[in-house]
TrEMBL record:
This is Tubulin-specific chaperone C. Belongs to the TBCC family. GO terms for cellular component: cytosol. Supercomplex made of cofactors A to E. Cofactors A and D function by capturing and stabilizing tubulin in a quasi-native conformation. Cofactor E binds to the cofactor D-tubulin complex; interaction with cofactor C then causes the release of tubulin polypeptides that are committed to the native state. Keywords: Acetylation, Chaperone, Cytoplasm, Phosphoprotein. Residues 1-56, 149-168 are annotated as: Disordered. Residues 22-50 have a biased composition (Basic and acidic residues). One of its GO terms (biological process) is post-chaperonin tubulin folding pathway. One of its GO terms (molecular function) is tubulin binding. Tubulin-folding protein; involved in the final step of the tubulin folding pathway.
Length: 345
């Protein structure tokens, strides 16, 4: 008879304990649901912000691009002085648009980024074509230094231009006209140099160079490398973009806002880039931090507007490799032990 109350008390304790556990489970479930709802809310808000940023970028980018295209169309039929002013304004606006794109890469989708970069590249090509058409450059000339035993020119023959300083391999290159100071083309086995005074924020084009060593001082506006084979090219800070196409077996050292590389193989790039490097149809491209130095490098960085503290040299997007979470086999990082630090001839 006395055991019955004990059973009742134990049953009561067990019931109370079970109710507490149920209550705890309900509270945890409610908390989990609340946290999940908060996460969904934050994700929705984040998506909304990203969409708003993307819409603002697209609208601003297209407006500015149309403004530049209008400037370029105004070059047709204008006199040389007016054309030069329009091209100068278009160049400045294009550089600003490049910077706007670089500053927006953090919130743009890959599709939006690629679309904008393609549009900007097309715009830059149109600018170069308009400049070439409106302000045509003189033909580039090459001439070997006359030997001491050569006969003196006839008195009625025109005097030759002053010969340029000697370059490696004994070849000589005449000084080009001022409008041609930013181009080297169709050369083999020579050392080539452009001074900061020659470059003066201009576009630089290097094309069809083989076995050459190139030093570009100062701050170019853009740099175009095309059909480069077994060359060493060192360049000062480029204020906007570097475009590389059909380069092989070469070593490049370049600071820039944006790098786009196409059809390039077995090439080492010592890079300072403030956005993200892009490769396409490339193989065997390797990267390391920019390490070339010369006395006026800091001054040229300031002139270019590049941020020396911001270098995304190892952030490379391969447009031919879409496997998320897997490193592209088309590019690699140069091991520290193999990186070049001495650039003296």
């Amino acid at each position: 008879m006395d055991a019955m109350p004990e059973v009742s008390r134990e049953s009561g304790f067990a019931g109370e304990s079970g109710a507490v556990k149920i209550q705890e489970r309900l509270q945890k479930r409610h908390q989990a649901r609340a946290e999940d709802a908060e996460r969904k809310k934050e994700a929705k808000e984040s998506k909304s912000v990203a969409e708003e940023q993307g819409e603002y970028f697209s609208s601003s980018f297209n407006t500015e691009r149309a403004s530049i295209e209008e400037l370029l169309s105004g070059c047709s039929g204008a006199d040389r002085a007016a054309t030069a002013r329009l091209l100068e304004e278009a160049t400045a606006k294009t550089q600003q648009l490049q910077k706007f794109l670089n500053d927006s890469t953090l919130f743009l989708t890959q599709y939006e980024l690629r679309k904008a970069q393609a549009a900007l590249q097309k715009l830059q090509s149109s600018l170069a074509e308009a400049r070439e058409e409106a302000l045509p450059r003189k033909k580039f000339a090459f001439r070997a230094r006359a030997k001491a035993t050569d006969k003196a020119p006839a008195e009625d023959a025109p005097a030759p231009d002053a010969a340029a300083p000697a370059v490696s391999g004994g070849a000589q290159v005449d000084g080009a006209a001022e409008s041609e100071q930013c181009r080297f083309s169709n050369m083999d086995g020579v050392c080539l140099t452009k001074t900061a005074e020659e470059i003066q924020k201009r576009d630089v084009l290097l094309t069809h160079l083989t076995n050459c060593k190139v030093r570009l001082f100062g701050s170019p506006s853009t740099l175009h490398l095309k059909h480069i084979d077994n060359c060493e090219i060192l360049c000062g800070p480029v204020s906007s973009s570097v475009f590389i196409d059909h380069c092989r077996n070469s070593t490049l050292a370049i600071p820039c806002q944006q790098l786009r590389t196409h059809h390039t193989t077995d090439t080492k790039v010592y890079l300072h880039v403030t956005s993200r490097a892009i490769i396409e149809d490339c193989h065997g491209v390797s990267f390391a931090p920019f390490s070339w130095s010369y006395p006026t490098l800091d001054k040229d960085f300031s002139l270019s507007g590049l941020d020396q503290a911001r270098n995304n040299w190892s952030e490379v997007d391969d447009f031919n490799w879409l496997a998320a979470g897997t490193h592209s086999p088309n590019w690699s990082v140069i091991p520290e032990a193999d990186r070049r630090t001495n650039w003296e001839p």
